Amino acid sequence: MLTRRLGRTGHQSSVAILGAAAFWDSTVETTRTAFVNALAAGVNHVDIAPAYGAAERLAGPLIGEYRDQLFVACKSGRHSRDGVRAQLEESLGLLGCDRFDLYQAHGVVSLDDLDSRADAFATIVAARDEGLTRFIGITGHELTTPRAQAEAVRRYDLDTVMFPVNARLWADPDYRRDAEALLELAAERDVGVMAIKACAARPWGKDRPPGKRTATTWYEPYTAEPDINRGVRFTLSVPGVHSFCTPGDVGVLPTAIAAAEHFEPIELEPAIAASTSNAALIFPMPRN
Question: pTM of the full predicted structure?
């Protein structure tokens, strides 16, 4: 699989990052199979969080087993110093790590949210200074995320950012403007850029309430191979994007990884134009 330098981290990350949200309510057997298959395909970077259901418990032993082959990224959505520190230490234990390669503030979605997380960022910066993580970053969903992340990079000299990138979002002029400004800033500061939602199709319809959904993602993902290929190709073709996180569903995961293995660049503008006739934006993210 193609690798790209993840900004100032210097890590040659596989263009597909294993998104451990796929193991939210998985089984030991399914998790091991998916995990080992991803590594066999060339994935060398895993993204995981305490918020991902059973993922830390299920994938933790595997991360420990393959630690020397992986760039391990974890994160915390907590706000207080004590809360973030406790969660970081718990995750280190669950994942069999002495330190993380990357630790991130999870789910920062607006400037107000960024302001409210000052203590969390202070704790994460201190963790980098102490050697509990090599690098630090930020993640987030929502249409307001790129602007908030750009400000976070300025405030905290972050090493990485993670935010949504797909053709439908690029068809929204306000989102595209803010996202491209963030990408420009990241390039100037040599900040690593990881994308999410490459395979997002649409919000779940009213005919697909919880319990009747065909995937474990909070949005409806593409499931057909041509659609997944197109989504992955678009996201990885956006200038400044280094890698994308695979969707949080074990059913979609193998096709997304295969798309990354066979990645070829795509022309952005035709894909953006075509996306305007598709379903509504997946945001705002459901809060239930």
Answer: 0.96
pLDDT at 219: 94
Which structure tokens are listed for 75?
Answer: 């994160």
- Exposure string (b/e) for 26-54, b if CB count within 10 Å is 16 or more? beeeebbebbeebbebebbbbbbbbbbbe
Question: Do 282 and 142 contact (CB within 8 A), yes or no?
Answer: no
- Give the distance from CA 82 to its chain's centroid: 25
Residue 115: name the closest of 65, 152, 158 by CA: 152
Residue 157 region by backbone torsions, left for phi larger than 0, else alpha for psi between -120 and 50, else beta: left
Structure-token pair, residue 239: 């200038």
Can you point out the beta strands (E) in 6-159?
12-14, 16-19, 45-47, 71-76, 100-105, 133-139
Q: Please give the radius of gyration of the chain, using alpha carbons only, rounded to the nearest integer.
A: 17
Residue 171 has which token pair?
């068809």
Q: What is the mean pLDDT of each run of 10 residues along the chain (288 residues)?
A: 98 98 97 98 98 97 97 98 98 97 97 98 98 98 97 97 97 96 98 98 88 90 96 98 97 98 96 80 83
87: exposed, middle or buried (Cβ count in 10 Å: 0-12, 13-18, 19+)? buried
The tokens describing 238, both together, are 């956006």
Burial class (CB within 10 angstroms; exposed 0-12, middle 13-18, buried 19+) of 202: middle
Instruction: Give the C-alpha separation, 113 to 47, whole Å.
Output: 22
Cis peptide bond N-terminal to 284, omega within 30: yes
Which residue, 91, 97, 20, 32, is CA-closest to 64? 97
Q: Are 55 and 32 in contact (CB under 8 A)?
A: no
- Quick one: pLDDT at residue 260? 98
